[in-house]
TrEMBL record:
It is found in: Cell membrane. Pfam families: GAF (PF01590), HATPase_c_2 (PF13581), PAS_4 (PF08448), sCache_3_2 (PF17203), SpoIIE (PF07228). This is Magnesium or manganese-dependent protein phosphatase. It comes from Streptomyces collinus (strain DSM 40733 / Tue 365). The keyword Membrane applies.
Length: 897
């Protein structure tokens, strides 16, 4: 009704507004016609208009007058034009000189034209609604021009706007009255009918009757005098009421005495249990009017005999659901196969079984793919419950199951096997008769064994045992055991696959890391590498011997984890070896590594890698590269985003050398700063990755303080002892990140093992160099190497004098090998080649390459150094072998082949 009233009021308001608008529009149109004609005729009759139209510049004379007339008359435009319709005036200057829009034919014939037409933009709005055009006569009565005046639609439409609030106000008042009236009438009706229509009242009564007699709970309504007003079908059945009980006093209904006393009492009752015949009834009683009223009561009756059985089954189902929930949250908390198997045993015992055993294929424990060939040989992975009640195989023992054993049957048939009474299970007793007799004597009675399968592949079996003190397993218990096994199997398979992938990644990473210490004289080195349990990372380290008895130390960390990070680490380690072989400066090595990482990122961005490739997108790496020279005792270092190394002096003082921090690898375009750090003999240089000093719980500053404390007093320790002390003190968690640690104790070449002198650039002084060499080797006890060393030095010095530039220097180093170095100020590197028969030179470097174990060139800031190494064994010349004489002579044979 209220909506109908609202619709009527809205329609009336809309009708009134429409009538007013139409009337106002008509009146406004008529008024606009009159005002347009008056304005046009007044301006046309103004003195001087006709003369102005004939003047040389009508616009200059008429435009100000037209604007003044437009404003005084309240019209939107006054246009003066010539007989051809060309405008001389207009509110906008840009429209002057254009053709007038409208019908000017009648006006040229002396008539007044009133019309509706559009035109150029006006100050009052777009287009012209009403315009009047009149002729302009000269003194002889000839039409010399036209004048048009007009009013836009917006202006005439404002005539009806003042009346709109009155109409809307009347409509609003009508709506308010309709709302108030409807509210008052509705409140009265709701009080009388409780808010229900007659049809709804009838449906409510029918529904009430249907529900009342359909529920499985008895309902009685008793009036204040104790008469039975209502009894549904369930109450009549439970109390065996006669058909005419309704309307009679409850005392005449033949009810049992306890129930009758309860119904006649004015006190309420809650869940009181009374016996009615062979039924145990739960009775509740409440007053009909809880807040006071005429009186009476409502009684509900429930048959607790059936509810007890239903409640028992519900409790069992609830316990099973709770057990499955705890299995979902408690099994598979780690990615360890053994731990996951133990979690299954702990969840099932003792709530589901008294004893639980989990036996897995040996391949599953190792992370391999299981096969049917290993079914008979399972390894005990976990035991849950009271192990002392019966003799069982211990954890870790391999069990060979009999083909008729329940465990083998469940593997073959891929379903659970229930042995309700183990005394009647010959296959189980046949597995181990002596152990079976002891188990039966200990009270073992019932067994459920189920396969652990994932992706249709068997992983092992789970066996659930109950003793004589517990009820035997039933078929529904078998279903629960299979559900537990299914959930555990998924977690076991995830752990197995992780174990396999983790082992593969660790194997790959360890294969890419150094397997042994290279032979070198400069450092005593030890290291530790701890892979992360959650996935290997890209940490790596290296010890690389360099020419001149120098050694390069490398410590790096690739961003990310997994196989991709390990493979990337291998690529970077190989690149460092290659750059070190070229004997590049420290900053250039890091610069080349930076370019390599950028190229690797670009390769990943091209989309050629697989979409599911682990760790796609190498975002960078950190690296510390250091070169130690045992002759000078100086270590040149640079680090690209890597933690700063720590130096332990011989007296145990711990300090950081202050190596400048540069940008990590992979950013591109950033320089790398180096630092020359003097290291006294016996100092220890400690390199590490951030996994040693940083984790999610503690920042790197806290980790660095702990590392310093662990290294204090390590001056007399060996590098091996230093590494172990750091690992023991920091107790790093391998599960968070990889950890690489390297400790190197410095050695310094004694002056007695170093010989060097300067050579003037005169070929005649080469014999003097050989003499110096011969004398030095005699002092070192290396006379047997004299000829070879003199030959090598002679050729290298001759090349330096002939092709190099001063200063020229010679240095001999005695260590694990005999090193000959010739330096000069030229940057030109010699090149080994096969000399032709007609070439005069080109055979010197060939001889050097044949007699030396290794040779090469390295560049210095002042030129280059050509070096050659000869192997020594226990300080004596090694038996590296002399090239065949015939082979050497062929290089100097003047005869052709």
């Amino acid at each position: 009704m209220f909506l109908l009233q609202v619709v009527v009021v809205v329609l009336l308001v809309l009708g009134a507004v429409a009538a007013m608008v139409l009337q106002a529009a008509g009146d406004a149109l008529q008024q606009g016609r009159r005002e347009s004609v008056v304005a046009a005729q007044t301006f046309a009759s103004s003195p001087g208009v006709a003369d102005a139209l004939r003047s040389p510049d009508p616009t200059a004379v008429l435009q100000p007058r037209a604007e003044e007339a437009r404003k005084r008359a309240g019209v939107d435009f006054v246009v003066a034009m010539n007989p051809a319709g060309i405008r001389y005036t207009y509110p906008y200057q840009r429209e002057i000189g254009k053709k007038f829009v409208g019908n000017i034919g009648p006006a040229l014939r002396g008539r007044t034209v009133v019309e509706q037409a559009g035109g150029p933009p006006l100050p009052a709005g777009q287009g012209t609604a009403v315009q009047a055009t009149v002729p302009v006569y000269d003194a002889h009565g000839k039409v010399v021009g036209l004048v048009s005046a007009g009013i836009t639609v917006r202006n005439v439409a404002q005539l009806w706007m003042p009346q709109l609030p009155i109409i809307l106000g009347c409509g609003a008042a009508a709506l308010v009255l309709a709302t108030v009236g409807t509210r008052l009438v509705s409140r009265r009706l709701r009080r009388q009918t409780r808010g229900l229509a007659p049809t709804e009242l009838a449906q409510l009564y029918e529904h009430h009757e249907a529900v009342l007699h359909a529920v499985r709970e008895g309902v009685l309504i008793i009036d204040p005098e104790g008469r039975l007003l209502l009894a549904n079908d369930e109450a009549a059945r439970l109390l065996a009421l006669p058909p005419d009980a309704v309307g009679r006093p409850v005392a005449e209904a033949g009810l049992p005495e306890p129930v009758l006393r309860l119904l006649e009492s004015p006190e309420p009752a809650s869940d009181e249990v009374h016996l009615a015949g062979d039924r145990l009834l739960m009775v509740n009683k409440r007053p009909t009017y809880p807040r006071g009223g005429p009186g009476g009561s409502v009684v509900t009756l429930r048959d607790s005999t059936e509810l007890a059985a239903v409640s028992g089954r519900a409790d069992v189902a609830r316990e099973r659901l709770k057990l499955l929930y705890e299995a979902g949250t408690g099994i598979g908390t780690t990615l360890d196969v053994g731990r996951t198997a133990q979690e299954l045993a702990d969840v099932a015992a003792p709530r589901f079984a008294d004893l639980v055993t989990v036996d897995l294929l040996d391949a599953v424990l190792r992370g391999w793919e299981p096969t049917a060939e290993g079914w008979r040989h399972l390894r005990r992975a976990a035991i849950g419950g009271e192990q002392g009640i019966v003799p069982t195989y211990p954890v870790g023992e391999v069990i060979t199951f009999d083909p008729d054993a329940p465990q083998m049957r469940t593997l073959r048939e891929a379903r659970g096997v229930l042995e309700r009474d183990l005394r009647e299970a010959p296959g189980w007793r046949k597995q181990d008769p002596e152990r079976a007799r002891g188990a039966l004597a200990g009270g073992l009675r019932s067994l459920v064994t189920v396969p652990l399968r994932a992706r249709h592949v068997p992983l092992g079996v789970a066996s659930f045992y109950r003793t004589a003190d517990s009820p035997p397993f039933e078929p529904e218990d078998l279903a629960l055991a299979e559900e537990l096994a299914a959930r555990a199997a998924v977690a076991l398979d995830n752990a197995r696959r992780f174990t396999r992938e983790h082992a593969m990644a660790v194997t790959l990473q360890r294969s890419l890391l150094p397997r042994g210490q290279p032979e070198q004289d400069a450092l005593e080195v030890a290291w530790r590498y701890l892979p992360a349990e959650a996935g290997v990372g890209g940490d790596w380290f290296d010890v690389i011997p360099l020419p001149g008895a120098r050694v390069a130390l490398v410590m790096g960390d690739v961003v990310g984890h997994g196989l991709h990070a390990a493979a990337t680490m291998g690529r970077l380690r190989t690149a460092v070896h290659n750059f070190s072989t070229l004997d590049l400066p420290v900053d250039e090595v890091l610069g080349n590594l930076d370019d390599l990482v950028v190229r690797m990122d670009n390769e990943e961005d091209t989309g050629d890698a697989a979409a599911d490739h682990e760790g796609v997108g190498v975002t960078g790496a950190t690296c510390l590269y250091a070169v130690y020279d045992p002759v000078t005792g100086v270590c040149t270092m640079a680090r690209a985003g890597h933690p700063e190394p720590v130096v332990v002096s011989p007296d145990g003082t711990v300090s950081c050398p202050g190596v400048p921090a540069s940008a990590p690898l992979g950013l591109g375009g950033y320089p790398f700063e180096t630092a020359d750090v003097p290291l006294p003999e016996g100092s220890q240089l400690v390199l590490y990755t951030d996994g040693l000093v940083e984790n999610r719980a503690r920042g790197i500053d806290f980790g660095m303080k702990r590392l310093r404390r662990a290294l204090e007093g390590s001056g007399d320790r060996t590098p091996e002892q230093t590494c172990q002390a750091v690992i023991d003190a920091l107790e790093p968690s391998p599960s968070l990140d990889d950890i690489a640690l390297l400790a190197a104790r410095t050695r310094v070449f004694p002056p007695s093992r170093v010989a060097e002198w300067t050579v003037p650039p005169d070929p005649a002084l080469v014999p003097t160099v050989r003499a110096h060499c011969r004398r030095t080797l005699r002092e070192w006890g290396l006379e047997e190497s004299g000829f070879t060393t003199e030959l090598i030095l002679s050729e290298l010095v001759t090349n330096a004098i002939r092709y190099g530039s001063p200063p020229i220097g010679v240095r001999l180093l005695r260590g694990r090998c005999l090193i000959c170095e010739v330096s000069d100020g030229s940057g030109t590197s010699p090149r080994l080649r096969r000399a032709a028969n007609t070439d005069e030179g080109g055979r010197g470097l060939f001889l050097v390459a044949q007699f030396a174990q290794r040779w090469g060139t390295r560049y210095t800031p002042r030129g280059k150094v050509i070096w050659a190494e000869q192997a020594l064994q226990d300080g004596a010349p090694g038996g590296q072998g002399t090239p065949p004489v015939d082979f050497l002579l062929e290089q100097f044979d003047d005869l052709g082949p």
